[in-house]
Amino acid sequence: MPSPTDSLRPVSGTADGILALLREWDAATDPAPLVVATSGSTGRPKRVVLSRDAVRASALATQERLGGPGQWVLGLPPTYVAGVQVLYRSVVAGTAPVRHDGDWQETAARVHGRGYVSLVPTQLVRLLRDDATGTALEALARFDAVLVGGGPLDPRVRAEAERRGLRVVQTYGMSETCGGCVYDGRPLDGVEVRVRDGEVQLRGPVLFDGYEDEPERTAAALDDGWFRTDDLGELDADGRLRVLGRADDVVISGGVKVPARAVATMVAADAAVVEAEVVGVPDAEWGELVTAVVEARDPVTLAGLRDLVEPRAWAPRRLVVVAELPRLANGKPDRLAVRALAAREVATRG
Q: In sequence order, what E strands does 30-140 have?
């Protein structure tokens, strides 16, 4: 039973309490929307209002895309949209979610029939790096789909995971779309994607109602029913979406527009790099200094990382190596903290 601290406005509390509330919410005749508080990884946090119709449309479309109802594993915080969806998809499927408590073999053994799990890229990277015996990856290979979303997925990481037998599905979405709504570049049924002036825009039954008590912010995010994601992207000849990065992740250095996510992907090609973020640090000469902040398993050099970047004008001019990238509670890199860390390091070194 939910405790007085469990809530759907905004979603808060324990996984069991939130699950009980979601069951009541799903069965109610005309429930009020739930509210998900965003992490604020790139700016001021928001409180996203999601109707039951939208959350249900997302859950059903996901179920259809993946091949039918199944048991979901909860290995993410239950208060963010990805965790909420694991719980609500279980409600819609009529199955009991399985809590992951650290042992993937034990977790997989509690899943019966079709099984699904959602991860953020960092979790997958660390599994590939740290699973010396291979037992965790062997367990994950039993799932019918391993959804990976909440950030960019390095193609090398995906290839290695698939070589180890994982059925990886790369998802793209956000709280405003009830979580992932584009799977491996293809929108879920009912969802539309377009790219306007380089910006990815989304429309469909999974869209949010708005930002709680912020009508101006809501109006700025919606354009005639289309949600403006602030992500840069392109559609290939087959209509498949490729996300290039955040519009506000473009670093302007010496008059050159540098796409930070693209550079981070190139930098991460160094075998010693576990994960990389690229940010701009204010600089009197360059305007912004392209700075790579990397978590590495072995020594790396700025010169070596610069050699991986094309065009050369995009190459980082400073390198900051950290034991671990700053992270938010949902596992995503905290880009505001990364940017502040980089600025401090650059200022200290001069």
A: 34-37, 47-50, 71-74, 98-99, 115-119
Gap between the Cα atoms of 334 and 322, Å rounded: 14
Q: Which DSSP category does 167 fall into?
A: -
Two structure tokens written together for 196 = 């306007």
Residue 87 burial class via C-beta count within 10 angstroms: exposed 0-12, middle 13-18, buried 19 and up = buried
* pTM for the model: 0.83
Give me the phi and psi of 292, to 5 degrees please: -95, 125
Under a CB-based contact definition with an 8 Å cutoff, are residues 22 and 187 in contact?
no
The CATH number assigned to the domain with range 7-243 reads 3.40.50.12780
Burial class for 213, CB neighbours closer than 10 Å (0-12, 13-18, 19+): exposed
Query: In 3D, which of 306, 173, 280 has the Cα closest to residue 233?
Result: 173
Q: Please state the domain extents for the chain.
A: 7-243, 254-349
pLDDT in tens, 262-290: 899 899 989 899 999 999 999 888 899 99
Greatest Cα pair distance, the chain, in angstroms, is 62
Instruction: Please give the Cα distance from 5 to 232 (Å, whole number).
Output: 38
Least confident of 256-260, 290-294, 340-344: 256-260
Range of weakest confidence among 50-64, 172-186, 204-218, 265-279:
265-279
Query: How many other β-carbons are positioned within 10 Å of the β-carbon of residue 86?
Result: 25
Rounded to whole angstroms, the Cα distance separating 236 from 313 reads: 26
Q: How far apart are CA 92 and CA 102, in angstroms?
A: 26
Q: 45-75 as b/e, with b when 16 or more CB fall inside 10 Å?
A: ebbbbbbbebbbbbbbbbbebbeebbbbbbb
Is CATH 1.10.520.20 correct for 254-349? Answer: no
Summarised one tens digit per residue, pLDDT across range 216-263 is 999 999 999 999 999 989 999 999 999 988 887 889 898 888 889 889
Q: Which of 171, 169, 164, 136 is nearest to 67 (CA)?
A: 169
